[in-house]
Amino acid sequence: MTALDLTPAPAAVPVPRMVAAQAGYELRTMLRNGEQLLLTLIIPVVLLVLFATTSLLDLGPGRRVDFLAPGILALAVLSTAFTGQAIGTGFERRYGVLKRLGATPLPRGGLIAAKTLAVLAVEAVQAAVICGVALALGWRPHGDPFSVLVLLLLGTAAFSGFGLLMAGTLRAEATLGAANLVYILLLAAGGVVFPLDDFPAPVRDALELLPISALAEGLRDVLRDGAALPGVPLLVLAVWAVVGLVLAARFFRWE
Length: 255
Known about the structure:
The protein is 74% helix and 0% strand.
């Protein structure tokens, strides 16, 4: 009879399993945070229903929900990939959570991958809820789903880069205030619920270069007008994504 080899063989689990476990933890943490849930899901849905069912705003020709639904989807990406991630990561850095995670077998690249997966999972929930509400309000989207996916992924990359940059360079309290301020400013001036055509031409030209404006207008081009891979919005988002991720990789401080 062959003897069993009971020699201990301690080793870390494979990286994909560690990333999956950390992503699950990140996702549960995000969903349990009442303030973050308000920011990422309830506020976008309330704005969609409020402005789609009332005439508080002049949204131009066409059905109100056709203008609002793509903008609210863009707002959902902003709230999760930028605001929520910046605030959450900033306080994790302040309380030493990132430092402790750095001492575990999970590599830092694995931590970033886990956070990204959690953000994408939340965005999938947001998109399902927002689209469901919009469809109930009479929304009839057009266009190529692949183009929508590319826009959403580029928008997520752009907002994530700058969210991590803010969280990794500012104090947690400053990140909290700055992230919420940016959220409000981009909601007001990013073409989400207020048409960019309402602004003077020079101001409008500048606002169109913002990532939130590029994402909202790109989604409208696809979902309302049936365009495929709108070039200018994709280019603007790609530039913001590269700049944000490069700066975050360069200046992010883990402690």
